[in-house]
Write a structure and sequence with these properties.
By secondary structure, the protein is mainly α. The chain has a domain of about 55 residues: 30s Ribosomal Protein S18 (Irregular), CATH 4.10.640. Helix content is about 40%, strand content about 0%. It is built from four helices and no strands. The longest helix is centred in the C-terminal third of the chain and has 16 residues. It is elongated, with a radius of gyration of 23 Å.
């Protein structure tokens, strides 16, 4: 075997240290968000989960559970169909 080149395992470790030194350690914070009964008529509550452009915000921004996110999404869509919320904010 050629002694000039490091073993493949050594190269992999070198590559990792080269790229991972600049990264901050990823710390995932999960906080519980408690919502009262989600209702399509509560427009002020639903506006908190809509972006400036009128899009429904994803879970990583809202910090809701999957079930709560589905309920909020359904309520927003109902409110839009009932003309309580706009489809877009242009």
């Amino acid at each position: 075997m050629n002694q000039d080149r490091p073993a493949s395992r050594d190269r992999r470790q070198e590559g990792r240290s080269q790229y991972n030194n600049n990264r901050r350690p990823f710390r995932r914070r999960r906080r519980k968000v408690t919502l009262a009964e989600i209702d399509y008529k509560d427009v002020e509550l639903l506006r908190q989960f809509i972006s400036e452009r009128g899009k429904i915000l994803p879970r990583r921004f809202t910090r809701l559970s999957a079930k709560q996110q589905r309920e909020v999404t359904r309520a927003i869509k109902r409110a839009r169909n009932m003309a309580l919320l706009p489809f877009s904010n242009h």
